[in-house]
Every structure is written in C-alpha cells, then in structure tokens.
C-alpha cells in the first residue's frame, strides 16, 4: 500500500447556503486525513461554476438554497459534469425529505444528515457516517444523465419468460428486494410501475442513513400510490403493501410468514442486512419467494440470492448499465445467483408477469 | 476538548450569531409585512420567505447545539408552512404566537452584531451572494474586525503627535547653533589676529606667548569651528527632514482617520430595524393601536452616534406609546383614526448635522401636569410655574424627575427616560427640543452631528497635576482678580459679561489635596468657564497651558464609571493625563464642591494711564491668557497671531509695549524684535519676550536683538509679566 502521504486525498466540494453549516462541515471533513476540502460555496450557481473549472471527487450538497436549489443544481451537474453527489439534509422533517429522493432520481447517490453540535448524543455517529459516506461515494463512477422521463409500465417482453427455462412459477408468496447506493429511485421506478392490485407483499432492505427511512417511506408512498410501511415485528405482510426494514434491526420472516425483527448480529457490518432477509426467505419460502438484488456498493445479499435460487426461487439482479454501483448485483451475477439480469425499468414488468396467477 | 477545538467552536458561534441575526430579522420583517398585506398570494409569498429563514436558522441552531432556538424555529416552521400552503386567515392568536416565538429566539440570541458594511437596499434574507465572499461592490466584514482596525488607526494619532514633537525638538536643536555662531563670529577676527601674532609678533602684542602652544590651540579652535559648522548643517538638514516627515505623517494620519470615520457611516435602517416590532409589542401590551413610519432609512450616520442614540430613540418611542397614543376608543371619540401614527424621521442638515424627529399624533403634552410635577419635585417654585411659558414648561419634560404619569409603570413614570435623551444628545454635541399641541400630538427633535468630530481639549494644571477639559464645553478662559470675587449666599461668584457666574476651585471639586505654597494669596487666578446647556460655572485653576487636538481613550475595566473623569489621553511628552467630564464637574460644582468663600487677598492696583499693549502669540489660549492678565491689570490690549502680523500692527498703530512669544510662524520673536529695533520710529518700543526657550544662549540672543525683558513660560508667573510691563511701559 502506498503510504498515506503519497496517496491522493479525496477532494470534496461543500455546497450549503448557511455560513455556519459550511464552516462546520469543512471543519469536520478536514479532520479526516484522507479528505481535502477544495471548495465551500453558498449556492447552486457557484457550485456549477466550480465544477466546470475543477471537478471534485465528491460534492456534498444542501437541499434548500435560495436561487438555484439543491435539486436543480444536482440535475444540472449530472447532465453536464457528472460527479458523485451526496445530499446533506436536515431530516427531522419528513415533509421535506421528499426532495432528497427527488434528487436521487436525478442522480445523487447517497444522503447524509446535517451535522449537529458536538455535545449532541448523535454527534459521533453522524460524523462517522458522514465521513464514511463521502469516502465511499468518491469511488462511485457516475455517468452523464440524459434528461429522463419517468418510466412507464412497459409490457413484459415474452423473451424474459423464455429465459426461465422450464420452470413454472408456483404461487409467489413474498418478494424480497435488497438495495443500497442508488436504490430509492429504482425502488420508485419498480413499485410505481406495479398495478394497484399487485397480489404479493414486498419486503425491502434499503441501506440508508438512519433518519432518512421514514422520509423514504413517505416519499415512496406519495409517489407510487402504494402503502409503504416501516416494518414492525409480528406484522403479517399484506398483498400489495411494501415493508421497509427499520434501521438497526435484522428483518426476516417467521414460520407463518409474519415479519420478524431481531437484534441479531450485523452481517458484513450491516444491520439490516439483505443477506439476513434473503436467507430467511430461502429457508422459509424456498420457491415461493422471489429475490431481487438492486444497485448497491459491496456484496451484501449476493451469496444469499444464490441460496434462494438454489432453493428454487426466481431471482433477479439489476444490470450494470442501469445501476449506480454494480457491487451487489455484480457479485450476484458473478456467483450466478440470478435467473435474470434486467435493467431497472424492466424489473417491474418481470415481477408482474411472474406473479400473475395462471 | 482541545484548545483548537475550543477556538473553532468560538468562531463557529460568532459566525452563527451573525447568520442568526439575519434570519431573525428576515422573519420579523416578513411576519410584520404579512400582517399588513391583504391578498392571500402576497401573504403566501411572504410566508415562503419567512419559512425558509426559519428552516435555515433551525439547521444552524442545531449545528451549534442551541436546542431551544431550534425548537422555537421548528414551531415557526410549522406555522409558516401552514401559511405558505393556504395563506388566507392570519389569526391574531397565531401571529401572536409567532411573535412570542420570535421574541424568545431573539432573547436567546442576545444582541446581534450588524454585519454588512455597505449600504443594504435588499432585505437581508434575499441578499443572495453569488460566488465567493465578494460580490459586486460590497463586502461583508465582521464588526469586531472593523473596530479593531479603527482603533489601530487611532493609535497612529500618537505617532502624529510624536512626529510633531520631534520636528519641534529638531528645530530647537538647530536653533541652538545660532548662539554658537554668534560667539564664534565675535572671536573669529581675534583668533586670526592671534595666529598672525604667533608668526610675526606685532607691536602692541602683550607678554610672552608660547607660540607653538598657542598655534595648536588656534588650530583646535578652527577645527572646532568647522566641526560645529558641519554639525549645524547636519542638524539643520535633519530638522528639515523631520519637518517634512511631520507634514507627511500628519497628512497621512489625518486622511486615514478621516476615511476611517467614513467607514463607520451606517444607514439609519440598521439602527431602526427593531423599532417596528417594539412599537407593535408595546401597543399590544397596552391595548392601543399604532403604526410606525420610518423616514430617512438610507441616511448615513456615524455608527457610534447611532449606537448612542439607539436607547434615547427607544425611550422616545416608548414614551410616544405610553403617553402620546390614546386608547382607540378615546381617539375615535376625538375624531381621530383609531390607529395612531408614530413617525421617526431622519433628515440631513447643513454643516454635517442630522436631525432625528420622533412624532406622534396622540394626546400631546399636558403643560399643567408637567408644571405640577416640576413644582412637586422642587424644580420650579409655584410662582415660576405661573410665570414660565408653555414652551419652557414643555422643555421641563427633558429633566429627570419630571413626569406626567400619575403612577409609575414598568415603562414610564419614573421621569428618567427623557433626561437620558437630553444627556446623550448633549454628550454628542447636539440639542433636543420638544413641540407639542394638546390633543393633536407631540414631536421631539434631536439634532446631532453626523460624524463624531475630533476631540479638542484644553490642558490645564491644578494642584500640581495636569488635566484636559473638553473644548466643546468651555465657553471661555479668563483671569480673575481676587477682589472681583463676590460672595453671594455663601457661594463665590464672579461677574462675566454682566452676569454672575458661580466660581469654584477645581482643586476642591476634584477633591485634590492642596499643594503647599500654592495660590492661597495669588492675586489673579485663571478660570475656565465651563458650560452645559444653560449652566455655567467658572473653575479656578493654577494654569491654562494649551489647547490641542486630543485622542480620547475611554477608561476600561474595572474603571467603568469614575466621577468627573470621562477618559484619558497621552500627551506628546508621553504623560498620561485624565480627561474631565464637563457634566459631572458642573453637577459637582452645583452641589457645593467649592469651599466656602475665602477672604479675598488685597490687591495692588497699578497706576494706569490707559496704555496700549500689543500681544503677539500664535497659540490662541496663550494669547487669550496673556491678554486677560494684562486687561485685568488695566491695560488695553490688541493681539497679533504671528510676527508679521505684529510688525504690521506695530508700524500702523501706536503701542506702548509689545509682549511677544518667540516661536511663531512667519516671523519669530527674535526677528520681530530685531526689526522693531531697526525701525527708526519704533526703536524705543519696550519689548517683552515670553517664550518656552530657556537656555542661557536663548536669553542672550534675546538681549542681543534688543528685547527689554525675557520671560520663560515654564516658570511663568503672572506677576513677573505684570512687573516687567509696569517697569517698562
């Protein structure tokens, strides 16, 4: 390994209209020897101008700014000089969190909470999360986004069925989805494209900074029209409802299909872990479950998707092109864990087709 | 926590205070505007602006750990979000809740600092900066940094004084060669003769002289002469350079200080920002309705003046609401609109002055009540109460202890508020006046300079110590003979311009121990007549030394308030000297700081025919002082401001004697004397030189040029002068 002194430090641009927050963020970021703050600007126009001159490794972007706000700035940057953008948001208000996910739709890759004062109970955790996210996201390769329109429900090409060589899906009881970096827009795409009378409950593990989950649920509900809950222990999943694994719990299913939340050990440092969910589904439901592994950093769930496939389940991995980070699904593909590899906008129709009663 | 972290947190907090003040202001202004607008769309727009401010402040408060500010902002956010969505009815309950929350936040933040230096025309929340810290032609600077720089600029004043002193010293040094030259000129010819004699003795040469030794001595003398001449050239050169430096430094420092003062100009809007809310809250508390109109928000005024006037203006506003504005039903009954109008107007006037007016259309001042209150507090006798005019009665409101409130409330009734207004205004060198019509309204008018002028003071000596008194409060300097002091009701008074003015000893007022052997029996005593408002008191001192520009240094902790002393300054000599507070002195004097009248010492009155004396002196104070010494001894005196002026007057007029300073511009005292002596008509005119130069050489120069008497300032005694004049005239 090269010694740290020679290693290139991660360059970060901070965008926030509050002088206090800018000052604090710069201070916190610079306390990490691997990070170097190359700019701190107070509005979107300045951010755009900066990125044109000098592309940073990561941008830490505020949402609410006068003039060009965070959403608009993200969109423009991703359309002209794409850079991994980490949203920095005050999450205490679920009303306002919707914009966070809209920003993800236009290309932001992750979100973190705005820092609190040093003596606040959550200070340490928030700072650690901030630094880690910034460093991780600097490695994500982002591509230029074209002006996108919301994907509509495409009819399932018959070809996708033919790849499921010879298997007739028996009644699917549950769908499990696991995702991390870049997940929310894909979840929105998929769920939004499902018909209202979708017959199967969906359990989702979305790795996300704690505090953003309620906002995610709210936002998904509003934009998809589906009921999106934060899963609670012992609940019986209902058809057409969506359940998000709460932060810091492992989510699995019980003998009767009810949701089981435990404080079981973190897997791969993650809790909730996709691996836990998929393993539980493989054990309890075998061929009557479906597993979908979407964009995300790392490998969480890849091996367990294979378990599900081996147990007879239909498994889908998101393709490289539509993934923000192809870590998790990529590993799944490598392990041959997926029966199908699909782009984001085709997954919904696959789900519909595969769950249709025949 | 490491000290670096602590430092960072302190800086973060300071940044927060600035940002918080802006957001708070945006919310207050926005909320008040919302209450005034009527269309729902306009209200919604405002609500959106205010919502953003609340949101931003909440985030910032969270980042610095101010949980209560955060939660108040959350409350406000909710309120404003609701209004943003649907506009429509702003219920009184809701707006009151919002105002209370804002007041809580404001209290939690303490007094915010004003950040922007440039003039603001856009409301703070929308002053979007594009790009880095500079935008267009305005820059944001912390007030503390600006103040620090201005203090440093002021310190350069001392450099200016020092440069002046240095140039003076050099000039005097150069001057001293004159005496040497004089001496050398006298012996040079003899030295030559002697030298010749060593070579070729001539008849008439006396005695045996050791030729070689003498020659060596003469060589040395010659060498010394050359050496001294070269020193003289050198020193003269240095003196010129010192003079040039002094001019340059003077110009630079004066320009810098002048420009610095301009930096301190702020628009009135910055001071007036909290006023609308203040009026609104006061009205709400008392069940009255009033609207505040502010005019002249863009008028720029010295920040320090604004700071000093802020409290008085607040007092006047409180006064207007408490006393002026009637309850709405009384107003309608009187045919007035139920909503009163209070106006603060700022208008620039000629001569770098600014006028502040606070007026209301309320009940007006009840003159009878004012008189009654004044009589009750012993400020006015019942007879006087009948005699004085309404205008004079109204002016009484500006005194402490006078109030028309029947009872003391939290806001009014103690009679203190308006007295502070007049005190502050006077401290700034301004005036206050009041106009009112019963039933129609009241108007208070404060006129102050728009920039704080440089402080000028008179250096005096009393009981062996030196003090500075502010020139602005000195009416005149005079010399009073002991027998002119009358005793009226146990107090000493003197007659000035036909009026009796109380006379006290400054040493007594300052409670200084009397120095042994000082002027218990001195016939003539200098007095400094000080005034404030319409009060005058003559303070007897030991000596009046000079009048000059002075850099005021305020007293620091723990000396927050010292009676009679308002600050201190450093003289060019490096001596630290207290600056006396005129108002305190007058108060102390009134309270009988002076000792009871002593028996006047007997005085010789010289036998006079009316003799005319010309006094030539470039320093105003010295000139006035000498003039009054001579006048009180019965001479008639004319004055000249420098040597040329003196010579012209002497040629034109008929004088019996000239008293002249030596160090004067254009023509100094020595040369003036020489010229007078050279003039056939004037050659007998008695000349008394009065000077600071005190070496033997200078005296001898004085004698050389033909002066009749040579008096040195530092050991100056008025009797010496009068003695000399009497002998010569």
Mind explaining what this structure looks like?
The complex is a heterodimer of chains A (358) and B (729). By secondary structure, chain A is α/β, with parallel strands linked by helices. Chain A folds into 2 domains: 10-137, Rossmann fold; 158-355, Rossmann fold, CATH 3.40.50. Chain A is built from 12 helices and 14 strands. A 7-stranded parallel beta sheet of chain A has the order 8-9-7-6-12-13-14. Chain A has a 5-stranded parallel beta sheet with strand order 2-1-3-4-5, with helices on both faces. A two-stranded antiparallel ribbon of chain A has the order 10-11. In chain A, helix 11 links the parallel strand 13 (314-318) and strand 14. By secondary structure, chain B is α/β, with parallel strands linked by helices. Chain B folds into 5 domains: 1-113, HPT domain (Four Helix Bundle (Hemerythrin (Met), subunit A), Up-down Bundle); 145-200 and 211-263; 289-450, 2-Layer Sandwich (Heat Shock Protein 90); 456-514 and 521-590, CheA-289, Domain 4 (OB fold (Dihydrolipoamide Acetyltransferase, E2P), Beta Barrel); 612-728, 3-Layer(aba) Sandwich (Rossmann fold), CATH 3.40.50. Chain B is built from 21 helices and 25 strands. In chain B, helix 20 links the parallel strand 24 and strand 25 (709-712). The chains are: A alpha/beta (358), B alpha/beta (729). Chains A and B meet through helix 1 and helix 2 of A and helix 1, helix 2 and helix 3 of B.
List the helices and strands and how they pair.
The complex is a heterodimer of chains A (358) and B (729).
Chain A: E1 10-15, H1 19-30, E2 35-41, H2 44-53, E3 58-62, H3 70-80, E4 85-89, H4 94-105, E5 110-113, H5 123-137, H6 158-163, E6 174-179, H7 183-193, E7 202-206, H8 213-224, E8 227-230, E9 241-244, E10 250-253, E11 259-262, H9 274-285, E12 289-293, H10 302-310, E13 314-318, H11 327-334, E14 340-342, H12 344-355
Parallel strand pairs in A: 1-2, 1-3, 3-4, 4-5, 6-7, 6-12, 7-9, 8-9, 12-13, 13-14
Antiparallel strand pairs in A: 10-11
Helix pairs in contact in A: 2-3, 3-4, 4-8, 7-8, 7-12, 9-10, 10-11
Chain B: H1 3-36, H2 40-64, H3 67-86, H4 92-109, E1 134-135, E2 138-139, H5 143-199, H6 211-263, E3 265-267, H7 268-272, H8 275-286, E4 290-295, E5 300-302, H9 303-324, H10 328-333, E6 340-349, E7 353-360, H11 367-376, H12 382-387, H13 390-395, H14 417-427, E8 431-437, E9 441-449, E10 456-462, E11 465-470, E12 474-481, E13 486-488, E14 491-496, E15 499-505, H15 506-509, E16 524-532, E17 535-540, E18 543-549, E19 565-570, E20 576-580, H16 582-590, E21 612-616, H17 620-632, E22 636-640, H18 643-652, E23 657-661, H19 669-678, E24 687-691, H20 696-705, E25 709-712, H21 718-728
Parallel strand pairs in B: 4-6, 15-17, 21-22, 21-23, 23-24, 24-25
Antiparallel strand pairs in B: 1-2, 3-5, 6-7, 7-9, 8-9, 10-11, 10-18, 12-16, 13-14, 14-15, 16-17, 19-20
Helix pairs in contact in B: 1-2, 1-4, 2-3, 3-4, 5-6, 5-20, 8-9, 9-14, 18-19
């Amino acid at each position: 390994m090269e010694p740290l002194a020679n290693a290139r430090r991660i360059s970060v641009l901070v965008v926030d209209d509050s002088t206090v927050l800018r000052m604090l963020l710069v201070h916190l970021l610079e306390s990490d020897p691997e990070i170097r703050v190359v700019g701190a600007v107070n509005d979107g126009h300045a951010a755009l101008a900066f990125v044109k001159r000098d592309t940073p490794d990561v941008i830490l972007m505020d949402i609410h700014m006068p003039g060009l706000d965070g959403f608009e700035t993200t969109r423009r940057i991703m359309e002209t000089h794409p850079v991994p953008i980490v949203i920095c948001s005050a999450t205490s208000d679920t009303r306002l969190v919707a914009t966070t996910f809209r920003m993800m739709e236009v290309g932001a890759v992750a979100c973190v909470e705005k820092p609190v004062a040093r003596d606040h109970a959550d200070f340490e955790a928030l700072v650690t999360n901030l630094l880690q996210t910034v460093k991780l996201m600097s490695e994500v390769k982002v591509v230029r986004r074209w002006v996108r329109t919301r994907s509509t429900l495409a009819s399932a090409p018959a070809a996708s069925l033919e790849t499921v060589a010879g298997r007739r899906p028996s009644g699917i009881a549950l769908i499990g989805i696991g995702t991390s970096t870049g997940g929310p827009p894909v979840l929105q795409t998929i769920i939004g494209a499902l018909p209202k009378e979708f017959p199967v409950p969906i359990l989702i593990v979305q790795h996300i900074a704690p505090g953003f989950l309620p906002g995610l649920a709210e936002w998904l509900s509003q934009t998809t029209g589906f009921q999106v809950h934060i899963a609670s222990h012992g609940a019986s999943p209902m058809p057409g409802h969506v359940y998000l694994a709460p932060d810091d719990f492992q989510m699995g299913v019980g003998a009767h299909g009810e949701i089981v939340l435990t404080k079981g050990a973190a897997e791969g440092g993650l809790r909730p872990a996709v691996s836990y969910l998929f393993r539980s589904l493989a054990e309890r439901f075998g061929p009557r479950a479906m597993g979908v592994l979407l964009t995300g950093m790392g490998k969480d769930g890849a091996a367990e998707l294979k378990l599900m496939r081996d147990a007879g389940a239909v498994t889908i991995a998101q393709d490289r092109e539509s993934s923000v980070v192809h870590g998790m699904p990529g590993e799944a593909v490598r392990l041959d864990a997926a029966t199908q590899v699909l782009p984001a906008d085709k997954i919904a129709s696959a789900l519909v087709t595969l769950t249709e009663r025949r | 926590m490491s000290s670096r972290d602590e430092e960072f947190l302190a800086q973060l907090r300071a940044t927060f205070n600035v940002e918080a003040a802006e957001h708070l202001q945006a919310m207050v202004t926005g909320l008040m505007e919302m209450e005034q607008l009527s269309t729902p769309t306009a209200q919604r727009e405002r609500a959106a602006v205010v919502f953003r401010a609340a949101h931003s402040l909440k985030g910032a408060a969270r980042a610095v750990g101010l949980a209560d500010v955060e939660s108040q902002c959350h409350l406000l956010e909710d309120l404003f979000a609701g209004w943003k969505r649907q506009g429509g009815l702003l219920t009184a309950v809701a707006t009151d809740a919002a105002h209370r929350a804002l007041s809580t936040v404001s209290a939690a933040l303490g007094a915010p600092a004003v950040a922007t230096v440039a003039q603001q025309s856009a409301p703070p929340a929308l002053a979007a900066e594009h790009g880095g810290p500079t935008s267009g032609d305005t820059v944001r600077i912390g007030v503390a940094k600006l103040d620090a720089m201005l203090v440093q600029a002021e310190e350069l004043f001392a450099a200016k004084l020092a440069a002046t002193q240095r140039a003076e010293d050099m000039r005097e040094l150069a001057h001293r060669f004159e005496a040497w030259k004089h001496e050398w000129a006298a012996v040079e010819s003899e030295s030559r003769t002697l030298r010749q004699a060593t070579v070729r003795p001539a008849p008439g040469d006396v005695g045996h002289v050791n030729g070689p030794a003498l020659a060596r001595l003469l060589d040395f003398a010659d060498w010394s002469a050359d050496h001294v001449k070269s020193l003289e050239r050198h020193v003269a050169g240095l003196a010129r350079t010192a003079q040039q430096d002094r001019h340059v430094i003077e110009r630079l420092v004066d320009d810098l200080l002048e420009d610095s003062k301009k930096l301190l100009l702020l628009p009135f809007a910055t001071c007036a920002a909290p006023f609308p809310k203040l009026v609104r809250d006061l009205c709400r508390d008392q069940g009255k309705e009033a609207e505040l109109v502010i005019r002249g928000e863009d008028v720029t005024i010295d920040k320090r003046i604004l700071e000093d006037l802020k409290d008085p203006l607040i007092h006047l506003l409180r006064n207007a609401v408490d006393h002026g504005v009637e309850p709405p039903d009384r107003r309608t009954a009187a045919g007035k609109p139920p909503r009163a109008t209070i106006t603060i107007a700022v208008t620039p006037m000629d001569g770098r002055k600014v006028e502040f007016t606070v007026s209301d259309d309320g009940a007006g001042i009840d003159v009878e009540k004012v008189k009654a209150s004044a009589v009750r507090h012993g400020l006015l006798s019942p007879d006087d109460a009948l005699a004085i005019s309404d205008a004079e009665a109204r002016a009484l409101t500006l005194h402490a202890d006078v109030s028309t409130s029947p009872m003391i409330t939290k806001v009014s009734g103690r009679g203190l508020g308006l007295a502070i207004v007049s005190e502050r205004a006077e401290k700034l060198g301004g005036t206050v006046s009041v106009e009112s019509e019963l039933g129609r309204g009241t108007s208070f008018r404060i006129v102050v300079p728009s920039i704080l002028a440089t402080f000028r003071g008179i250096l005096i000596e009393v009981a062996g110590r030196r003090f500075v008194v502010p020139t602005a409060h000195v009416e005149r300097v005079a010399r009073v003979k002991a027998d002119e002091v009358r005793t009226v009701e146990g107090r000493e008074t003197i007659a000035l311009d036909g009026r009796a003015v109380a006379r006290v000893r400054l040493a007594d007022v300052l409670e200084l121990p009397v120095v042994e052997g000082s002027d218990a029996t001195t016939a003539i005593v200098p007095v400094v007549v000080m005034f404030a408002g319409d009060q005058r008191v003559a303070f007897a001192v030991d000596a009046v030394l000079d009048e000059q520009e002075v850099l005021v240094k305020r007293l620091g902790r723990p000396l927050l308030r010292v009676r009679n002393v308002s600050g201190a300054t450093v003289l060019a000599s490096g001596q630290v000297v207290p600056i006396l507070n005129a108002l305190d002195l007058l108060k102390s004097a009134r309270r009988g700081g002076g000792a009871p009248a002593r028996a006047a010492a007997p005085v010789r009155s010289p036998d006079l025919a009316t003799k005319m004396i010309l006094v030539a002196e470039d320093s105003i104070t010295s000139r006035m002082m000498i003039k009054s010494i001579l006048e009180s001894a019965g001479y008639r005196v004319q004055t000249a401001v420098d040597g040329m002026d003196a010579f012209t007057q002497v040629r034109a007029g008929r004088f019996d004697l000239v008293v002249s300073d030596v160090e004067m511009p254009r023509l100094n005292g020595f040369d003036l004397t020489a010229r007078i002596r050279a003039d056939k008509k004037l050659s007998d005119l008695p000349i008394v030189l009065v000077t600071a130069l005190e070496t033997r050489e200078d005296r001898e120069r004085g004698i050389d040029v033909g002066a009749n008497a040579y008096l040195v300032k530092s050991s100056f005694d008025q009797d010496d002068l009068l003695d000399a004049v009497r002998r010569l005239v």
